[in-house]
Amino acid sequence: MASGGHLRAAALLLAVQLLRLAAADPDQDGGTVIPAESRPCVDCHAFEFMQRALQDLKKTAFNLDARTETLVLRAERRALCDCMPTNSLR
């Protein structure tokens, strides 16, 4: 099967990468390190994202509520006009 060969090749590549990471010099600088005190936490970003999402949902719910109310009033008016004889409107 060709997929078995692909799976073995992927496993081999993964093993080679893991060996390279294990053999890497631990003192090697991986880039600029930002102190924890000066970087915002992931939870703060998630909280801000959820706040914005909640505000968007509230706006959507309000718009849907207003639209539903408009449609209900329109349907009630249409039903009222349909059931009244036209000569009683004069």
TrEMBL record:
Keyword match Secreted: yes
Signal peptide: 1-24
GO cellular component terms attached to this protein's record: extracellular region
Matching InterPro entries: NICOL
GO MF annotation, one: RNA binding
Main location: secreted
Annotated localization: Secreted
Pfam families per record: Neuropep_like
Keywords of the record: RNA-binding, Secreted, Signal
Similarity comment text for this entry: Belongs to the NICOL family.
Protein name per the record: NELL2-interacting cell ontogeny regulator 1
Source species: Gasterosteus aculeatus aculeatus (three-spined stickleback)
